[in-house]
Amino acid sequence: MSTKSSGDWRFWYAQHKGTLFAAALFVVMFVVYVSNHPAGFTPNVVQTAANKATLLAFVAMAQCFVVITAGIDLSAGMILILCNCLASWLVVGSPLQTGMGIIAVLMAGLACGMLNGLIIIFGRLQPIVTTIATSAVFFGLALLLRPSPGGSVNEDLADAFTSKLFGVVPASLVVLALTILIIWVPFKRSVLGRAAYAAGSSETAAYMSGMPIKRAKLVAYALGGLLSAIGGLYLTFFSYTGEAAFASGNAYTLYSIAAVVLGGVSLAGGKGSAIGAVFGALAFRTIGDLLFVFDLDPLWQPLFQGVVLMVAISIGCIGLARVRNRLEWFQ
Asked: How do residues 250-265 score in pLDDT, each as one tens digit?
């Protein structure tokens, strides 16, 4: 009985090792941050940090859905920018108009993700090529909507989604947790979720097993677009405006890939969790906060982020290297 329990624990640890590492890294870095912050550990400091990290967390979740199928979405950041510009037009007015605007923005993100999936699955194009092309299309649409920064948003709604609940808990973290419970958990436990993991591990074997590979991949890309749209909404809530910022869209795309790697999601597919990607995003964003409290030149941030990411990847590869060495003993 104890042997079986030990085996179960080891299996669980092997599955969640990346998530646990990302969570531990985030906790350590955040403790160092608040310990050196002039205001200390206060609700306002936590709220500010949470609001900055939430944007990347949503895009990292979107990237995770695609990466577990052994794909990649280089349009995730541009979907966020497009939905930000769209929200600056639609999420205004009366409560009914605001609600309809939010639905329209979310549906636009879902449609963008679905378009990626349809082209990749039925057009049989490589994900990297497809999403580079669609990212240009999405940015072009964002530029048509907002050739210059402008627009507005329902400020009462924006304040509600970026404030603190009960004066302590950041509302953005609550929304992030609810998103995981409503979108990620049901997907992972569904037949389509298992098929997505199977496709990432071995698409040929999954197809021979009769798993719904095409539907799983389509849903993964569509949900990825939906999550990027939620990030676009939050960007509008934070900035009160819309802007077709090319550099910002590219940065969120690249940072989302870094966050999923940091969170233990394999770029080869078939392994990882959106929860790990979220912790990876939180840890990645905390790097900038650390530079702030230690009063380092912002120009050092890319270097510092790259070093942290390389260390994380190296630690994650140690176990793989050991397994390969042990397998070589039996050849």
From this structure: 999 988 998 998 888 8
